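Recall that a protein's primary structure is simply its ordered list of amino acids. Everything else, from secondary elements to tertiary packing, is in principle encoded there. The following example makes that idea concrete.
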Amino acid sequence: MTGVDAGQVGSGRRGRAPKRRGSRRRWGWLVLGVLLGVLGALVVRAVVLVRATPDYWESNRMFLDATPGEELESLAREVETRLPREWTYPIGTGDGVRKIRVYFDEANAWLALRMGAYLANQGVALPEAVGQVMLTQRDGALVLAFNYESSALGSRVASVFFGFERGADGTLGAGVVSARAGEQRLGVKQLVSAVADRARLEDPGAQEALVRLGRGERLPLPRFRVDDRRWAEVLAVEVQPQWVEVTLHVAFDDARPRE
């Protein structure tokens, strides 16, 4: 091979190397573009889901808007007077097991018309950004939903899903199983802790309960007073499409706890 031929061959080899580097750069930009496109699609999907209004929220708004004010007031007043009567009425000598059923429509009428005054009397102030509150169910879980004002997205709907299960000690407990903004899943701790930080509760125990729920803990449902002689404990909670039913055991102070 002549010197000219060798030089030409060497020159050709040196000329092809930049092409490979340029090809690698093009492939790198292509991969980066695909990754950015996927990330952008995920972000758009997340925004769409956050902006979405759950169907149960729409149904409740339609119910409140379509029901005459007098009827809503009657529903709220009825559930406010009926529930205490049902869980305090005598069974036998005044104790026993009883079931209390609450329909979501009547509960939401009460939440819309009377919750604010009740919370004020209890010394509870919800965050200013929280507006309407509703109770419903989805897939067997009890759902507490509320709308809130977001500086970035305007009025949005958040939902907290509660589940009930019995612990090793036999007591029934409640816990937060999931949380959502619109239809976008959130970290339970993220949402519940935000409410705990912003809500002003006079009862330190209630504030601590919110924090524990945010940590994903199951909280045993406590006994509560029926009157000055009796207490009650929750034995079961059944959630159905139109209602939630609570089974209570009412007993006198000197009665032995149920095994």
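Residues 27-49 have pLDDT under 50 and may be disordered. Residues 3-51 form the longest helix (49 residues).
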